[in-house]
């Protein structure tokens, strides 16, 4: 296994300080087919109609997270939708690394301040 994104996923979920202490981070082989077969993208046109901000890391890997974010954005019929790429960041960097998270939060703060109605 050599893909950096897969190795980052393994390190994050199995070795990082953020992993859940009771999680073995393992699954039954018999459930793998159902996990791989699950696809909810067909629901996006019906469900993702409100303003949408999709944020992805610009460093692509074998897990397809970047491509899934682009597809989510493209399938949404929302008229106010934006795809923001955090250049140089991988998917898992957006979980906990200070610089990519700060960039993403800044983008989300702008998005929410523009789209969320104050009462």
Task: Describe the model.
This protein is mostly helical. The protein has six helices and two strands. It is globular and about 40 Å long. The N and C termini lie far apart (51 Å).
A few lines on this structure:
With 119 residues, the chain is mainly α. The chain has helices at residues 4-15, 29-37, 44-47, 65-75, 93-96, 98-115; strands at 52-57, 81-86.
Secondary structure: elements and pairs:
Elements: H1 4-15, H2 29-37, H3 44-47, E1 52-57, H4 65-75, E2 81-86, H5 93-96, H6 98-115
Parallel strand pairs: 1-2
Fill in the keyword field for this structure.
119 residues, 6 helices, single chain, two-stranded parallel sheet, mainly alpha
Radius of gyration: 16 Å
The overall pLDDT, averaged over residues, is 91
The profile of the biggest β sheet is:
2 strands, parallel
Low-confidence stretches: none
N-to-C span: 51 Å
Helix content: 40-55%
Structural class: mainly alpha
**How many E-type strands?**
2
Q: Strand arrangement, largest sheet?
A: 1-2
Shape: globular
Strand content: 5-15%
């Amino acid at each position: 296994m050599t893909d950096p994104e897969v190795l980052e996923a393994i390190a994050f979920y199995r070795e990082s300080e953020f992993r859940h202490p009771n999680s073995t981070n393992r699954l039954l082989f018999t459930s793998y087919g159902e996990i791989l077969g699950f696809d909810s993208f067909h629901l996006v046109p019906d469900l993702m109609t409100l303003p949408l901000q999709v944020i992805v890391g610009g460093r692509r890997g074998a897990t397809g997270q970047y491509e899934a974010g682009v597809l989510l954005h493209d399938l949404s019929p929302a008229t106010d939708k934006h795809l923001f790429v955090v250049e140089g960041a991988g998917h898992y960097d957006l979980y906990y690394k200070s610089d990519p998270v700060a960039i993403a939060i800044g983008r989300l703060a702008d998005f929410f301040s523009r789209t969320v109605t104050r009462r």
